[in-house]
Amino acid sequence: MIADFFEMHRSQLLVTAFVLLSFLIIRFIIHFTISKIAKKNDINVARVRLMKRYVTVSLLLITLLIELFVFGAQFEDIAVIFSSVFAIIGIALFAIWSILSNVTSGIIMFFNFPYKVGDKIEIHDKDFPIKAIIEDIRAFQLHLRLDNGDLVTYPNNLILQKAVTLVEKDAIDHGNDDANIV
């Protein structure tokens, strides 16, 4: 019975093995590239893991779509399923569009953001100007430490829309207490 299954679906199983091997190779290459970019630009490890997770999920969805075609799903059937799913997701996500905007901004900031954790920046916002040290760069927001010690979370999509000035590079005190020794 099992032998019959393998005999009937031999070509699909061979194509599946090829697709899965391709998935793993492409994933490895992209993860390697992300790691190289992160190391070159001194990007936080948590952000690197987040980008790798985004890539893996995207590639997995593409692989799943390819596998549906391999096992005989028709384009019309897949189009109906995807249009229904995307309609429901679209309606649900319309209510939380700012989250998507912040995640997209976080991805853009991973590859092209001139400021690093520890830099002191000034955000030129007419309603709420901020001068603070970047403590962390997350998927949705920046964590900024004000001079008075308050922690401010600033949305990623806003940091890309406002003018920002680098006040001091690597302004965080790394605990060098040798200067206090008498």
Walk me through what this model shows:
A 5-stranded antiparallel β-sheet has the order 4-3-2-1-5. The chain contains 6 helices and 5 strands; from the N terminus they run αααααββββαβ. β3 (141-146) and β4 (151-155) form a beta hairpin. The chain starts with a helix and ends in a 14-residue tail after the last strand. The radius of gyration is 23 Å and the shape is elongated. The protein has helices at 2-8, 10-41, 45-70, 75-94, 97-111, 156-159; strands spanning 120-124, 130-137, 141-146, 151-155, 163-168. α2 (10-41) runs antiparallel to α3 (45-70). Mean pLDDT is 84; it is low at 176-182. The longest helix is centred in the N-terminal third of the chain and has 32 residues, at 10-41. 57% of the residues lie in helices and 16% in strands. With 182 residues, it is an alpha+beta fold.
Shape: elongated
Global Rg? 23 Å
Strand order of the largest sheet: 4-3-2-1-5
DSSP E strands, number? 5
Output the keywords.
5-stranded antiparallel beta sheet; 182 residues; elongated; disordered C terminus; 16% strand; 6 helices
